[in-house]
Design a protein that fits this description.
heterodimer, A: 272 residues, mainly alpha, two-stranded antiparallel ribbon, 2 strands, 72% helix, elongated, B: 265 residues
Chain lengths: 272, 265
Amino acid sequence: MSGHPAADRAIPQVRHFGAVNWIGLWTLYCREVRRFVKVATQTVLAPLVTTLLYLAIFVLAIGDPAHKIGDVPFQSFLAPGLIMMAMAQNAFANTSSSIMISKIQGNIVDTLMPPLSPGELTCGFALGGMTRGLAVGFVMWGAMTFLVPVGAHDLLFVLFHAVAASLMLSLLGIIGGIWSEKFDHLAAVTNFIITPFAFLSGTFYSIGGLPPFWHGVAHLNPFFYMIDGFRYGFTGHADGSLTAGLFVLTIVDILLWALAYRMFARGYRLKA
Amino acid sequence: MPTLVMPRRYGAMNWRGLWTLCLKDLHRARKNFRYSVLGPVVSNLLFLIVFAMAQGRGGVYVGDLTFLQFLVPGLVIFAVCETAYSTSSESLLFDKMEGIIADTLMAPLTPTELTAGYACSSAMMGLITGAAVAVPMLFVVHLPIASLPLILFFAAGGALMHGLLGIIVGLWAERWDHHAAAMTFIVIPFGFLSGTFYSVASLPALAESVARLNPVFYVIDGFRAGSTGHADGSAITGAVVVTLVVLALAACAHRLFRIGYKLKP
């Protein structure tokens, strides 16, 4: 009998949540995933085509059947490296482009205003990028099995390195996206840091063939461990120490996470 | 008394307008030089390093050339083509998305001048980037230059071909997705699979004859013939094919500007 329909409804209350705002975190994660799924042609199919092109040109240009690395045929050596490279580039692209575009368009406030702590922001973005990396890797692996003998020596190594590497690049993408002030800056990070590291860390060749100095340098490079361990999981061939790789990747992931967290917490280039 | 401002008169061609349109895209590329010039320089050097490392100690030979001698011209001409393509397509699409294409369409430029302006600026950017890619490589790899005219002809032909293709894609595309799709699914595969990295003579017979139907193959092959003397096809056929394709693309781009395809209501 009340006059106004609104009077029948309960008054909305402030939502209370505990240590973690799970709904908010889940929402941010879903947004990050839907962002790339909506343009899957660009974010999944395009890297697949590019990677298969790389496979074709390397095999046609230098992959004569006698060419072996250790006791692994060149194709089987190359395939895991290419999958890892595509995963790395896409995990990086997902977070960096998301943050960069939001900053340029000004809708980053829609992400900063909701009750999300720096930890939740880091986690939501990082897991979104990681999901893209893993999705691309999985599709790539499916396509490659038709073309190249891709064995599975130790699936746990494959899984650990896929997750750790996607997370690492996804965190780097957050840092790069927050740091960049225009697209040209982000292009510079991609062209001068991410792509060279991805190319020169043993994607296409065994670092065993490098001169001693560069061989030493390669062992300081976390990208090398992620490719090497991932490849070991498929072929059983490793250039470096696997234990060192597990440690390096874990520590680098923790450090990058801490840095991304700190950037969000301070509002570095995000808040006035 | 102030003199009356009169409309400027010009003959068959509005040369000043054409030159201004050309400069517009060159200035834009200069402002984004990390992306438009340095990006290709770095990524092509990476290709060179990676191939040098991956071929192993024994080395790979293509005819009498070392693999790197074979590779460098392919990388350079592909950088020319890719940059020419992206300069015109990105310029047109960006202007369309921002709505500032009206400034270009309002100016007294005929479809011929529009086509020529976009094609020339993108071809120039392609050649500049190609030179920037080539210079550091020439310090590392010695090329037995065979014929300068062939180099210039095929570099200019490839640059114009891709600049014109970029105009057509830039007019057709409505979103960045479309542009990126044309790049990933057409321009890069055509370039990569047409002998940038390997001799088409090493392909299976069927794939080789398919590759020979591809105009990009003639651009790469002719350019390589000029810079190393190694050719998989005939330079004369190549010159004819490249000229015809450039003319056909120019006619197509001209027509699109004339009917205002996706430009005017």
